[in-house]
């Protein structure tokens, strides 16, 4: 089932995960794996349940609920095709995660995942190992994560242990845990949709949950408690060691979330920074309006300035606090969050998702002052102001979408403008998708690319994919080009899932490098970077 889910994710919605920066997106995969094992009953699921399905926008969720209220219960899952704006392409994506009769919840008392990766020809210490063990007893569970990166000597170079208790709204965690609260500005391991994920991700607040990632400088270690009385609240405290080399001037080098140790120099950066945090989050809902406030104090010892990180993070002692306002209506959803961070820097975002005529509209905006940083949320190293507008239309003819975004650097008095067009059509055994993107900077076009995808399913268990991509980077009077083409074959039957890809690529230089979303082991999101020229594939 895990492999089936993972292939389903890759087959249809690569844009959710095909990003160039590192984010803790394995959290999303864990949620989808859980949904595949325990599909949602669409006759009982509410908005907070349906938004867990990443392929549904907030307005899609509202439509499912509205149709159920007007026409009565769904008889089969295929009845969602009668919901205005739903088509076969969308139904194929959400089908593994919905049902009309919920199955009894099967508690897996012991679940172990082991992953081993090596390279050929083999080099010393090139192996990578990962284990995730989960033991449950009633409302209690224990999680153990271990990882050995390449060039690390110990199998337990990284390990994380967490104890978790959950009873409806009441949750308690000891050891390693994670928090996802608000829209991502202050407390979210996934981050803002304005960077690598989108509106569907930030609408879903996961609250307090177990930490099952291998990002060594992320998450929390300590204790946390969440409950709901007059309001929903969470309190937490954390203290842990982070990786990063501090020089005599107080500058940190290579301070990032991954904490990977790929050579002897990076090994010397292990556990050099002490991080302490404590804080709270409170939510209060009045009818359709939700008001929230969150704040935490953090201290880093020794204090430092991160010199070679894109975040330009100042590790010191400071309070960070924020407020959020969310509004849930019958036909639209509004989310917003405003925060104050280190040295009183202000940052925030807002988002709107609604239905106009036959179009699904998403509108979002952001603003981050220079030096704004939230250690457990959004990262911003410039004075960014910008926004994004997404308009999508689904019909029996085709699925069409247009995205327009602007990212402004007010210090440099410049902005990047992006336009993206998406087209998808399913006709019988053929499913075709096309995506084109353009970007302008300083009034000049500096980037263009397009992707084409064609899937043919001649038999129930067998499919063939054709993938084409080109990329053009404009610099003064020169143009750098990147090209990629691949043929894939997939076979799915009962517990057997197989995938074969063979492709060729050709890029003029590093600027024209390509990021290709790649099928990997369950629970892994990998974007393969290709540059130069050659052959590429996997089994």
From TrEMBL:
It holds the Pfam family HHH_3. Gene3D superfamilies: Photosystem II 12 kDa extrinsic protein. InterPro entries: RuvA_2-like. SUPFAM superfamilies: RuvA domain 2-like. It comes from the Bacteria. This is Helix-hairpin-helix DNA-binding motif class 1 domain-containing protein. The lineage of its organism: Bacteria, Bacteria division WOR-3.
């Amino acid at each position: 089932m895990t492999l089936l889910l993972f292939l389903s994710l890759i087959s249809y919605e690569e844009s959710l995960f095909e990003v160039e920066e590192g984010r803790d997106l394995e959290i999303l995969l864990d949620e989808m794996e859980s949904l595949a094992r325990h599909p949602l009953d669409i006759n009982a699921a509410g908005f907070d349940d349906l938004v867990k399905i990443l392929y549904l926008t907030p307005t899609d969720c509202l439509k499912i609920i509205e149709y159920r209220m007007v026409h009565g219960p769904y008889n089969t899952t295929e009845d969602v095709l009668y919901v205005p704006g739903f088509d076969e392409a969308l139904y194929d994506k959400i089908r593994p995660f919905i049902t009309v009769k919920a199955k009894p919840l099967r508690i897996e008392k012991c679940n172990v995942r082991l992953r081993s990766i090596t390279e050929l020809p083999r080099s010393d210490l090139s192996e990578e190992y990962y284990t995730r063990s989960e033991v449950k007893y009633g409302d209690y569970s224990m999680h153990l994560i271990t990882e050995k990166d390449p060039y690390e000597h110990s199998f337990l170079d990284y390990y994380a242990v967490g104890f978790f208790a959950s009873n409806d709204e009441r949750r308690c965690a000891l050891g390693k845990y994670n928090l996802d609260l608000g829209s991502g500005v202050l407390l979210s391991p996934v981050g803002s949709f304005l960077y690598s994920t989108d509106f569907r991700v930030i609408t879903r607040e996961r609250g307090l949950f177990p930490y099952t990632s291998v990002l060594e400088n992320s998450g929390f270690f300590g204790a946390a408690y969440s409950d709901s009385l007059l309001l929903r609240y969470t309190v937490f405290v954390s203290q842990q060691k982070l990786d990063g080399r501090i020089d005599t001037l107080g500058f940190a080098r290579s301070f990032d979330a991954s904490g990977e140790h790929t050579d002897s120099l990076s090994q010397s950066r292990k556990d050099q920074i002490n991080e302490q945090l404590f804080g709270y989050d409170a939510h209060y809902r009045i009818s359709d309006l939700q008001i929230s406030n969150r704040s935490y104090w953090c201290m880093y010892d020794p204090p430092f300035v991160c010199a070679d990180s894109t975040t330009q993070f100042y590790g010191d002692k400071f309070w960070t606090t924020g407020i959020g306002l969310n509004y849930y209506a019958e036909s639209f959803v509004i989310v917003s969050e405003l925060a104050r961070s280190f040295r009183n820097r202000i940052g925030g975002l807002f988002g709107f998702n609604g239905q106009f005529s036959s179009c699904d509209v998403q509108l979002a905006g952001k603003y981050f002052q220079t030096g704004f940083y939230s250690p457990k949320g959004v990262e911003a190293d410039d004075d960014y102001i910008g926004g994004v507008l997404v308009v999508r239309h689904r019909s029996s003819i085709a699925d069409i979408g247009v995205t327009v975004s602007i990212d402004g650097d007010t210090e440099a008095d410049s902005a990047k403008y992006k336009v993206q067009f998406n087209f998808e059509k399913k006709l019988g055994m053929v499913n075709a998708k096309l995506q084109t993107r353009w970007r302008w900077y300083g009034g000049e076009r500096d980037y263009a690319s397009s992707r084409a995808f064609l899937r043919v399913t001649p038999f129930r268990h067998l499919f063939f994919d054709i993938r084409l991509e080109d990329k053009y980077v404009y610099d003064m009077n020169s143009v750098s080009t990147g090209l990629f083409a691949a043929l894939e074959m997939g076979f799915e039957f009962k517990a057997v899932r197989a995938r074969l890809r063979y492709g060729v690529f050709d890029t003029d230089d590093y600027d024209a490098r390509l990021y290709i979303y790649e099928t990997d082991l369950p629970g892994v999101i990998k974007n393969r970077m290709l540059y130069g020229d050659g052959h590429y594939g996997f089994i």
